[in-house]
TrEMBL record:
It comes from Moschus moschiferus (Siberian musk deer). Residues 173-318 form a coiled coil. This is Homer protein homolog 2. Belongs to the Homer family. The gene is HOMER2. Keywords: Cell membrane, Cell projection, Coiled coil, Cytoplasm, Hearing, Membrane, Synapse. Residues 134-146 have a biased composition (Polar residues).
Amino acid sequence: MDAAANSHLSSSGEQPIFTTRAHVFQIDPSTKKNWVPASKQAVTVSYFYDVTRNSYRIISVDGAKVIINSTITPNMTFTKTSQKFGQWADSRANTVFGLGFSSEQQLTKFAEKFQEVKEAARLARDKSQEKIETSSNHSQASSVNGTDDEKASCAGPADTHLKSENDKLKIALTQSAANVKKWEIELQTLRESNARLTSALQESAASVEQWKRQFSLCRDENDRLRNKIDELEEQCSEINREKEKNTQLKRRIEELESELREKETELIDLRKQSEIIPQLMSECEYVSEKLEAAERDNQNLEDKVRSLKTDIEESKYRQRHLKVELKSFLEVLDGKIDDLHDFRRGLSKLGADN
């Protein structure tokens, strides 16, 4: 609440006894069902106590606009409709106020304070009624006493004063009776307004329950549709798998048909070849005879090769032997040649000496 509002309330004798912040709502007057936001954001909501009137009010101001001005009476009830939302009906303002808090703890504190202030308002109302009844009884007693005095003494110096006081008391009693009648009418009006607000609140609660049931039905329907969609997706997956299998089977059938055509072609070729089998068999016998002759010639050639290999080995052996003998002969020849050279040198020497 701003400073101007605080100053005005303080000057009028009201003091804040509890303050919190909440989003303020009012029931839609046309439908009595929907909530209409009274503030765009969370605002200050305070309990005020009026010392002069001995009354309690809930006041909230958004900028320069008063959005809650609700006098608390013993007949009011604050109802928690959710973990962070509460409401109460004000028959004098002919509306229902709703408060949205940021936490459940704030809602609990506000509800406890509402109950406390409501009880204090009830005690103040009871004391006020006791004072009215006491004043009324006192006025009636004074009136009776004044009448007896008039009968006891027809004249006296205090008669005029007592008559004047008696008239004042009669006027006060009449005004008190008129005030009581007015209060009774106002109380009846408040009860009727309270009954209308209670009916509207019940209708709102019934609408909330209906919305909850509809939401539950929609949620169940949504779950059912989701399950149906999952089943359809699974069926689509199975259909796709079956299509893929069919495609694979078609490809396999085509491959088998191709292989079958190839086998049929091979069978035709084999049938054609079977027609020339006798000729091939005679040719095979002729080739077999030639092969046997060739094998015999090959055997003879192998024998000759082995004989030649033996002769070659013997020739190689003789060659090695001849090489050894030739080497020995060459060594002997070299020795003889050396001896001959020595002999010639000796002859030359002898000729030179002679």
